[in-house]
Amino acid sequence: DAGVIQSPRHEVTEMGQEVTLRCKPISGHDYLFWYRQTMMRGLELLIYFNNNVPIDDSGMPEDRFSAKMPNASFSTLKIQPSEPRDSAVYFCASSFATGVAFFGQGTRLTVV
Amino acid sequence: SQQGEEDPQALSIQEGENATMNCSYKTSINNLQWYRQNSGRGLVHLILIRSNEREKHSGRLRVTLDTSKKSSSLLITASRAADTASYFCATDAGNKLTFGGGTRVLVKP
Questions:
Q1: Half-sphere exposure (CA, 13 Å, Cβ side) for B82?
Q2: Whole-angstrom Cα distance, residue A109 to residue B54?
Q3: Which A residues in the span 46-105 are in contact with B, Cβ-Cβ below 8 Å?
């Protein structure tokens, strides 16, 4: 298996634009997590899904953030409109219920 | 919010020395995990210790867990320059993994 695949690896966008981050989890995993990593706040859990259903989105910072998982092999995290303070590395991870998470390489987002 | 807090925030040692880092957490957990992150990369799972376990080994890694003190430690023995990375503890409280702030470890050759 190729592991968790995220795209794009890098994204530079202007303030106010819509940004969509994509994630393909490991086949067979039933949990999918979206994290955001910054120097100031560390690694924050934004939202997680179980069997494609959002379970806990309490970490989503604002209504500008939304996440979907239309099927077991694909998830998106969307920011609309984007702001400079959204600049961070966004990670997707997947796991079985045992809890060991496998991370993608991340998307480095820069909003200018 | 962060469930786990690592201590120290940064650690610099010579190759061959041992590195010890600690993690404290706040609520009951199912298990506690340690991850490693190299610069610019994703996190990689190192070891998992369940709430009913007190110590676990994996190669040069030794993890302890004290649920009464809500703390864990990670020991890396005979460190190598390639161990230079950030190390994070993560607590699993019902399949929701929450990470601490991490310990940056620099192993000097």
A1: 1
A2: 40
A3: 48, 50, 55-56, 91, 93, 95, 97, 99-105
Contact B45 A101 (CB under 8 A): yes
Q: Can you point out the beta strands (E) in chain A?
A: 5-7, 10-13, 19-24, 31-38, 42-50, 53-56, 65-71, 74-79, 88-95, 102-103, 107-111
Q: What single-letter amino acid sits at A31? A: Y
What integer pLDDT is reported at residue A46 of this predicted model?
96
Work out the minimum CA distance from B17 to partner chain A, whole angstroms: 27
Task: Return the residue matching tokens 């992150």.
Answer: B37
Greatest Cα-to-Cα distance within chain B, rounded to the nearest angstrom: 41
CB atoms within 10 A of CB B89: 28
Tell me phi and psi for residue B81, to 5 degrees: -55, -30
Candidates A64, A28, A20, A69; CA nearest to A48 is: A69
Residue B1: pLDDT over 60 = no
Q: Region B63-73: what's the mean pLDDT?
A: 96
Rounded CA-CA distance B109/B89 in Å is 26
Residue with the larger pLDDT of the pair B94 and B36: B36
